Amino acid sequence: MPHVLVHYHELALKGRNRRFFEQRLVNHLRAGLKNLEGIHVEALPGRIRVSFADPGQWSDCRTRLRHTFGIANFSLAYSLPAHDRSPDLAPLKEAIAQHLPLGQFETFRILTKRAEKRFPKTSIEIDREIGAYVCQVSGKRVNLTSPDLTIAIEVLRDEVFFSFHREPGPGGLPTGTSGTVLGLISGGIDSPVAAYRLMKRGCRVCFVHFHGRPFVSRASEEKVRDIIDVLTRYQLASRAYFVPFGQIQRTIVLTAPPALRIVLYRRMMMRIAEELAARERAWGLVTGDSLGQVASQTPENLAVVTEATTLPLLRPLIGMDKQEITEHAIHIGTYDISIEPDEDCCRLFTPPHPSIKTQLDQVRKAERALDIATMIKDGLAQAEFVEFRA
After folding, report:
1. How far apart are the C-alpha atoms of 295 and 305, rounded to whole Å?
2. What does CATH list as the number for 180-389?
3. Class at the top of the CATH hierarchy for domain 3-168
4. Which end of the chain is less packed: N or C, by CB atoms within 10 Å?
């Protein structure tokens, strides 16, 4: 029976909390693979084994593992009994020879790890014996530094596993181990990457999108739905709120000084997002702010926007430039969606010369002319709630 051996790295450093993180990863794998028949997920010492009866399921399984946070790497593996720790490696040699991808390599190496230290042969002794046998049956050469193929052997108490190709996982921490946060997501490049980075740190991310209706089309909403679909692959299920923000912007335009509009928009978004975060029991808000990238992201304006909420305001992209963020967006699969044209509320009623060094007393004075409580209430009342499933 084929297996997938899943390895984690960061989880192994969690000391007494390791079992909690490991079980969260096992549970997430079971949920992500549950519609594949005959799949069995089990924690083994220092690794997780995913077993499946049908080899044709490997492709689907691989795709889902690539989107599972907490996995450092994984490999399609084969197993055989350890035979009560017998030093005889003949069954292992024959099994490896049977599965060797002969036409795919010219050089190889053996890399053995022993989780079962009572096995009578050391890792180096196993490497040498298996390596000599592979040379004999394949005619290929050993290369310890840059081989075409690495044959990985893992010796456990009751089983010995071997594999030929190790694939990288996304790393990070299992979904849900760091609680829930609410991500403010636009149709742009930055905010999906910010959400992804918090997901990678174990957060379950709920979303809120502020759109410009009734003054613009649904284009930005449709884009954001597509982006959330992509991100949901990593956490299996997502919750999102779509808040019509056009009338709120219009009220600000008719009341406040033009230069302060952008900051006032952002502060209103934070207040509404904070109320939605309370519904979701989220402990923080996430934005795609990058220091100095646009007028609302100067140090002074960031500080004024932060003051509008009592929740921690997380900005995982704050020190990244646009090129770095773009490369990350391409990697996670949101870039092509983000560059599609839309009608973003952030460009609605934008002043020609927005303030870049806004002072808090200026903003508070402007907000005294606004019925903030009613604006928040109206935004919440009109919010559309949508659930997404991977």
Report:
1. 12
2. 3.40.50.620
3. alpha beta
4. N
